[in-house]
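Reviewer 2 asked us to include a model.

Predict the structure of this chain.
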Amino acid sequence: MSGSRITFLEGQAGQGVALARIADRVRSQLASPERAALRAARRPLFTGIGASYAALAVPVQQLRKAGVVTQRVLSSEIETGTAGFDTDCLIAVSQGGRSRETIAACRSAAPGITRTALLNVLPSRLGELADLTVGLGNEPDSYASTIGYTGTVVALDLIAGAIASRAQDPWGDIAEQTAAVHGRAAEVVAGLRERGARCIASDTVAAGASCASAEEGALLLREVVRMTAAASATRNYLHGEMESAGNTLHLVFGDGREIELARSLAGAGHLTLLLTTARVEPADSLSVIRLPEVPDAVRVVLETVVLQELVARLSAERGVPIESFVFAHDDTKWRDPRAAAGNAGPPAPVAPCRP
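Predicted model (structure tokens):
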């Protein structure tokens, strides 16, 4: 069984309800005796590639706040093994379970490390290699991921909560929150889409868990809108990176130094969208979407809802079909060798570089 494809707009429309389903499924799995080794992890190492790697900023931030030693690493950096990392549990993330780099990282993990796979699609090659799996439930997803990405963020937060023995679960009303923010985003994006579509590049800037949103935002702008984009950590962006602003779109996530940064960029005439929980008035070149006060992981999901609306409208304004991709590679996804030999039916179509 594999997750089926839906359009990007269908993914947006059904996202809130799907996330509630995913949260229920993952809660049930994490409470099971079979996942005891995952709950007992004390030095988890998270790995993924592409959007999956971006999502890993969320559990790493959560666990470090709880005093748990953890980090994230690109799967390509540990394809030959986990030597040099003090870890008792490798948590490998791949929505389809076919990313070659992540499969190689899981296969080469040192003996004694619990290999856990977080997936949407089961069965899959990554799931077969892992000692434990956590599944989103084969949810239908779009090529440029909607539900698959945000569902991964939900699952990663619940995994972090299980490891840290967190008492509270923040996902009870995610369907309602998602719908409310989507409506707000549609109103604001309508006012900047024409100018935004004319921008030649974009910077996405955030700190903490919202670095996941900055990284995912840059990826979505590249693969959906086909706009050159780069993600930066807030303090690093201030140390010179922002000097190249010019006919650029700036997406700024945060409530601290990010507010002054957004005002500075807009004050210099650069189109800026600020996502914040603070009361900030819009101004010339500055659009603001105010988010509710929610835990960090929920905030990342809501920020992603805004990003999805933005790229959908910019894509339409530019006349770029959302479901189209320029490049496809035959070396980023695992293929069943039995298919090549004619024993397992035709090979799966080559997908773009989504994890």
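The longest strand covers residues 114-119. Confidence is low (pLDDT under 50) at residues 343-353. We have added this to the supplementary material.
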